[in-house]
Amino acid sequence: MSNLKNHDLVTIDFKEILFETRPCLDKDGSAIDGLFNAWIILNNPKQYNSYTTAAIKEIILAFRKASNDRSVVAVVFTAVGDKAFCTGGNTKEYAEYYSGNPQEYSQYMRLFNDMVSAILMCEKPVVCRVNGMRVGGGQEIGMACDFSIASDMARLGQAGPKHGSAPIGGATDFLPLFVGVERAMYSLTLCEPWTAHQAYYFGVLTDIAPVLKLDGKFIANPMVVTDKMTDEFGRIAFGSMKTGDELGKAKEIVAKAEVDLSMLDKAVNNLIAKLLHTFPNCMNKTISEVRKFKLEHWDKNKEGSREWLALNMMTEAKAGFRAFNDGPKDNREADFVLLRQLLAEGHEWNEELHRAISPQFEKQSA
């Protein structure tokens, strides 16, 4: 119909991310005439697909565009390459612009909040295609999606308390819904990543797919434990990383193999093909009702979290992001013990304290 109205807010030329419409495939793999999937693709592989301020603006508008497109069946949220889906906010931008500028970071976090909300309000099913690491803010925007299908080489987790922040951009709201309070507490505080197998077992992922090919055949991630369910102490070991000689041998296999994401794409398309064979309005209503569990926590907490994160840019975030950005490659964390000792003595947060705990200043004085 030529008289259909355009409900997009603006017309945008995407520069920071990629936006594509690809034919929607049926269950037999054939393309459906006139129906598409919108692919929103993070495009910053050199920095592990971290999002900049400019990219966030485009992501918001991309989800609105996909939501308004009558021919779109589902949205695939993914990234370029095979190393990372997203590692969160761009630490270079954080360290060099937002550190020490809470008023600026507050406005940035307004955009971040709108990005998460844009995912949760999208009028299409959203599938996160996890093509690699999903860490920090990347884990948060991934959990905002309705489904997540991951490379079995991916690792997922948080980084906040290790690098001067708190995972309150969605992780503290969403993760307990997926895995329960105790397991979420362990992940969010200690920032120890899960393998894709663990994340699938814990209920964070819808499915995983092999991506390594050796001698022309797909193989499962050789670096994780898949042949037993408990360790010597009776704890669940399935999906955990191998150790010692076994890990060394597994890394040799990985080095010989090639990465092929076709099975990941097949799994994504197979899921969407199942979504295709449903009544669209009933599907959207079902999804919106399930999203309410996330939105209940997200809408209640996002503004207070934004304000806290902005003020934190004067203290721990300033130290943590600058340490990660400027520190030597083998040491990108602040001296946590010394920090606690200085704070116990009542030391104020000033330049002297920053220099004392930051690895980049240790390197300069060495």
List keywords for this structure.
single chain, 366 residues, alpha/beta, 2-enoyl-CoA Hydratase, Chain A, domain 1, 2 domains, six-stranded mixed β-sheet, four-stranded mixed β-sheet, 14 helices, 47% helix
Can I get a quick summary?
This protein is α/β, with parallel strands linked by helices. It has helices at residues 53-68, 91-98, 102-120, 137-143, 171-179, 181-190, 196-202, 244-256, 262-276, 280-312, 316-326, 336-344, 351-357, 359-365; strands at residues 17-25, 31-42, 72-79, 84-86, 126-130, 133-135, 147-151, 155-157, 194-195, 207-209, 212-214, 217-219, 258-259.
Structural features, described:
The chain has helices at residues 53-68, 91-98, 102-120, 137-143, 171-179, 181-190, 196-202, 244-256, 262-276, 280-312, 316-326, 336-344, 351-357, 359-365, and strands at residues 17-25, 31-42, 72-79, 84-86, 126-130, 133-135, 147-151, 155-157, 194-195, 207-209, 212-214, 217-219, 258-259. It has two domains: 17-211 and 261-312, 2-enoyl-CoA Hydratase, Chain A, domain 1; 327-365, no CATH class. The strands form three sheets. Strands 1-2-3-5-7-10 form a six-stranded mixed beta sheet, sandwiched between helices. The protein has a four-stranded mixed beta sheet with strand order 4-6-8-9. The chain has a three-stranded antiparallel beta sheet with strand order 12-11-13, with helices on one face. The mean pLDDT is 94. Helix content is 47%, strand content 17%. The protein starts with 16 loop residues before the first strand and ends with a helix. It is α/β, with parallel strands linked by helices and 366 residues long. α1 runs parallel beside α3.
